[in-house]
Amino acid sequence: MKYFTQEAMNPSERTLDLIRTIAYTYRVIKMADGTKASFCLN
How far apart are CA 6 and CA 31, in angstroms? Predict the structure, then answer.
C-alpha cells in the first residue's frame, strides 16, 4: 500500500502551469434555456 506524504502532494511547476493554462482557457456559459455549454479559448 502506498502512503502519501506531504512531499507527494506538491505538484511540479510544470504541472501547475498546465493546470493554470487549462483553467484560463476553459469556460462554461449558461444558455438562456438553462443549459450549460463549455468551450475552450485558443
Answer: 42
